[in-house]
Write a structure and sequence with these properties.
345 residues, alpha/beta, 6-stranded mixed β-sheet, two-stranded antiparallel ribbon, 15% strand
Length: 345
């Protein structure tokens, strides 16, 4: 018996495949429309309508979304352009377009790079514009299980992207505004007339190197009644609009509706470029191919040779990365399959 088991090798053990699960984490963004993609690459043969169709198919496969067909969105876009006499250019135009379409958001995508030759590559940039101007940008890391036991399972790459996004927003409150007219003042040259009283660059550096004056009674405190104790530093005062890390956690419901606060930036933005020779890319492609039971000859490497399949898989990656970075992942499903076709893959 043991000899039979030993000679059978791994044929007795099934393949273990982990299938990630994704869903729509935003109930307010249910009905969406995908506009034809703009071609910003150097490849004139790429079809923006075909890329939009591939994106539509992968987004519609995510539970929680109802996606307007690309053909309908294209016709309604043409009707809107004919009525207004101009194409939508900025955030207010796309927000108005979403309201005209009767959807919660419109997806405006661009093809930033494309090469169909092996190894293929494609760059995708997609902005989500909400019909409601009071829907504000959703940062990377929003809705993830921060502060809970599941936090240790958040991928390190996603943690780094969320920390980077938070730091970028925090540094906006610490960055000085650019003056309207501020030509550089170089040592040895006379400043313009309207900058006669301005110090030179070297003088400004010397002034910045001096210690800042300390206001008495504000920077240092001593514990009352305990002579000789080391002084305690007063906690620094943060800016009024300082982004709080607790903003990653959705707030509880309000008793009354919040007041409208219009803004015109996209609520979600995701930009990526995919290379066909990347090891992580091919690993995910092999799982993607295996879970779809594609009976065509060639296996997953053939996806790199068929531009349509390559573009669709890249759209799948782009959609799932956008949602996973904002709490759109569920419990992964583990599949066990007996190796009937192990040597055919």
């Amino acid at each position: 018996m043991l000899l039979c088991i030993a000679t059978s090798g791994c044929a007795l053990w099934p393949d273990r495949i982990v299938e990630p699960q994704f869903h729509n984490p935003f109930p307010q963004i249910y009905r969406v429309a995908v506009l034809p993609f703009f071609n910003q690459s150097a490849e004139p043969t790429v079809d923006g309508d075909a890329v939009a169709m591939a994106y539509y198919n992968e987004l519609q496969a995510i539970p929680g979304f109802e996606v307007m067909p690309v053909g309908v969105a294209k016709q309604m876009l043409a009707a809107s352009i004919s009525a207004s006499g101009s194409e939508p250019r900025g955030g207010p135009d796309f927000q108005l377009l979403a309201r005209q379409f009767g959807v919660d958001a419109v997806l405006v995508g661009s093809i930033t790079e494309y090469s169909p030759y092996y190894p293929p590559r494609i760059g995708l940039a997609v902005d989500w514009y909400a019909a409601n101007p009071s829907f504000h940008p959703i940062p990377l890391g929003y809705g993830l299980p921060w502060g809970r036991a599941e936090e240790e399972f958040i991928p390190s790459t996603l943690v780094r992207e969320a920390e980077f996004a938070l730091a970028r927003e925090q540094l906006k409150t610490q960055t000085p505004d650019i003056p309207a007219l501020a030509p550089p003042v170089v040592d040895g040259k006379v400043a313009p007339a309207n900058y006669v009283g301005r110090a030179s660059t070297s003088a400004a550096k010397k002034q910045a190197a001096l210690p800042a004056p300390v206001a008495q009674g504000t920077e240092r405190l001593t514990l009352a009644g305990k002579a000789g104790d080391a002084p305690l530093a007063v906690p620094p005062q943060l800016a009024a609009d300082w982004p709080d890390p607790r903003g990653f956690i959705p707030p509880p419901p309000c008793v009354e509706r919040p007041a409208p606060r219009p803004q015109y930036a996209p609520i979600m933005t995701h930009t990526r470029i995919y290379h066909g020779q990347d090891a992580k890319f091919t690993e995910r492609l092999a799982t993607y191919y295996y879970l779809r039971d594609d009976a065509r000859f060639g296996g997953w490497p053939a996806y790199l040779e068929r531009p349509g399949d390559f573009i669709r898989f890249c759209c799948y990656l782009h959609v799932t990365e956008t949602l996973a970075a904002r709490g759109g992942t569920g419990d992964a499903r583990v599949l066990w399959r007996w190796p009937i076709r192990r040597y055919e893959r």
